[in-house]
Write a structure and sequence with these properties.
It is a single chain. The protein is an alpha+beta fold. Among the domains are: about 120 residues, no CATH class; about 130 residues, Immunoglobulins (Immunoglobulin-like, Sandwich), CATH 2.60.40. Helix content is about 55%, strand content about 10%. The strands form 3 sheets. Strands 3-10-9-6-7 form a 5-stranded antiparallel β-sheet.
């Protein structure tokens, strides 16, 4: 095989995980705001109606929780200015492209260390996976949580470059990074530390001056958010959460206790990180390198590791109040995966000779396995999230039984682009079912309802089924429809993962039999509701009411204090 043909084949292999990533993203991504996304509508209204440039600057840079999210707001405004509406899929695209933008950095680092293109292959299989599903499908978080990591990596990589232009770009990127997410502030002390180790006094002094200015601007008019609960965990519990955070990439490994495997591999990765950091620091101080770029590689790897370990400390300390299980969730996994990649770079760069190819081949096999595990494990999360977003939008859109879209022509009500959703085809069927107890396709609906149990207490209604076996994806599945004299509510019946490895990997049975829903009364107005099941199966819809009713005596809507 010629060298050119081999390069083409490698390029296609490198594009494969990227193509899969964006294909899966496109299948489940939907233009519906999630949580903090709603704040971007307020921003666009404030920015568009600002009377002068000072008010526009204030709207762009004002605090959001503990963060400054100017980059996210800038993308949102550009999207609105170009297309006439805000589309959250466009924001997700921006964040996912920022995630992809880290791969050229790894390519450049490997190339300058005289490694073949083959050495890059494991990285996109680790980096572009469904493990990051929550950030992938969340407009604001995609830019903030994925973008800040790529921006920090590029800033640290360019700040230690001996040329003037890359350093100048690093200074500008540091400002963008700080205005992307709160932990982007870490790039300032890390950049200073790397410049100090590099022995460049002029750049070190300039970086310190710039950093002081950025820190002052960040904390000017800063107020401490009230939404995060204080952590009452002891040192041992915090250490346990810290290690699980570092090993969270392993959640998709098909074992029974996912937290324990994350904890164990987190301890291993922590020891690896400490070993890499101490070894590289020792080599940097000695400054005895046969090749100049080896020092740059050591400085970058040291900075990346300190960024990961520092972010882990911040997250565990501020989020432990939500519970340790939350520390291995999708939105934080990027740091665990990044630690894997840095460990790979640290080991692969020094390897020379004939052993290089077999070593990389073995790593590729592990990376592909991780990639497959991630998609199989987290597909259920993406499926459930889409259903939650769709039903939430239904519930806040239709406030009475007319099921007519609000005729609001105000500027604020028309900021977000109107996108067709699955419940558009349900609207006439819901009204029919409310009159005659059923509508649409009746195939299997009576059996489905009879095999579903409904239990209520003072705070919620629980819906469970253990026999439902459909493996259809996207919008297919079961929903719970509630009807009172005043309004309708729809809630998703969620699925759980199939724990049978044989069925999961050989037959692609992603879902375990059955479904469940735990619907809090705080999400509904008080009243007596008839309970129906809505079954979407491909293009067919069936709705069935029977005798089940639930009474909500009081409605205590949850209010979270925010600063936006």
């Amino acid at each position: 095989m010629t060298k050119k043909a081999f390069t083409i084949i490698l390029s296609l292999i490198l594009l494969l995980p990227v193509a899969i990533y964006f294909t899966v993203w496109d299948y489940y991504a939907i233009n519906i705001p999630k949580w903090d996304d709603h704040a971007l509508k307020t921003f666009i209204a404030e920015y568009a109606q600002a009377g002068n440039w000072q008010e526009k600057i204030q709207a762009l840079f004002k605090q959001h929780n503990e963060h400054r999210i100017a980059l996210t707001r800038l993308f949102a405004w550009l999207d609105y200015a170009v297309f006439g509406h805000l589309n959250y899929r466009h924001l997700m695209t921006a964040g996912n492209v920022l995630l992809l933008a880290a791969i050229p950095l790894f390519y450049d680092l490997l190339k300058k260390n005289k490694k073949p293109l083959f050495a890059l292959v494991p990285i996109p299989f680790l980096w572009m996976t469904l493990a990051f599903w929550e950030n992938m499908y969340w407009g604001m978080a995609a830019v903030q949580n994925l973008g800040v990591v790529t921006l920090v990596l590029w800033t640290l990589y360019l700040v230690i470059n001996p040329k003037v232009l890359p350093f100048s770009i690093a200074v500008l990127l540091s400002l963008v990074t700080v205005l992307t997410s709160g932990n982007g502030l870490m790039v300032l002390p890390l950049g200073a530390f790397l410049l100090f180790l590099a022995g460049n006094r002029k750049r070190f002094a300039l970086w310190i001056i710039v950093s002081i200015g950025e820190i002052f601007c960040y904390f000017y008019w800063y107020t401490k958010p009230e939404s995060n609960p204080e952590s009452k965990a002891g040192i041992l519990k915090l250490a346990k959460g810290y290690m699980a955070f570092l090993g969270s990439f392993a959640e998709s490994i098909p074992v029974l206790d996912h937290f324990k495997v994350c904890l164990f591999l987190g301890i291993v990765l922590f020891l690896v990180a400490v070993s890499i950091a101490s070894t590289t620091l020792f080599r940097i101080v000695r400054n005895k390198y046969s090749v100049k770029f080896e020092r740059t590689t050591d400085l970058f790897c040291l900075g990346a590791i300190l960024f990961i370990l520092g972010t882990a400390l911040i997250v565990v300390y501020t989020r432990a109040g939500f519970g340790l299980e939350g520390l291995i969730t999708s939105r934080y996994k990027i740091y665990s995966v990044l630690l894997l990649i840095v460990a790979y770079l640290y080991v692969v760069v020094p390897i020379r000779g004939s052993f290089l190819s077999p070593y990389i081949t073995a790593i590729i096999a592990l990376a592909v396995t991780f990639n497959v595990f991630s998609y199989h494990y987290h597909l259920v999360d993406a499926y459930n999230l889409r259903k939650q977003l769709v039903t939430s939008q239904f519930n806040w859109t239709f406030t009475d039984k007319s099921l007519k879209y609000p005729a609001d022509t105000s500027f604020a009500a028309n900021i977000v682009e109107k996108t067709p959703v699955i419940y558009d085809k349900w609207l006439p069927l819901i009204a029919i079912a409310d009159r005659q107890n059923y509508a649409g396709s009746s195939r299997g609906m009576v059996d489905l309802y009879d095999k579903t149990t409904f239990t209520t207490d003072t705070a919620s209604i629980r819906v469970t089924n253990t026999s439902f076996t459909s493996q259809r994806l996207q919008d297919s599945g079961v929903y719970v429809l509630l009807s009172s004299d005043e309004c309708y509510y729809i809630f998703p019946a969620l699925r759980t993962r199939n724990t049978s490895r044989k069925q999961l990997f050989l037959k692609q049975y992603y879902f375990a039999p059955g479904f469940y829903a735990d619907i809090p009364f705080s999400e509904m107005d008080k009243g007596t509701y008839r309970v129906a099941l809505l079954h979407q199966q491909g293009n067919e819809t069936g709705i069935l009411f029977k005798d089940q009713r639930v009474t909500v005596k009081e409605s205590h809507k949850k209010e979270v204090k925010v600063n936006w």
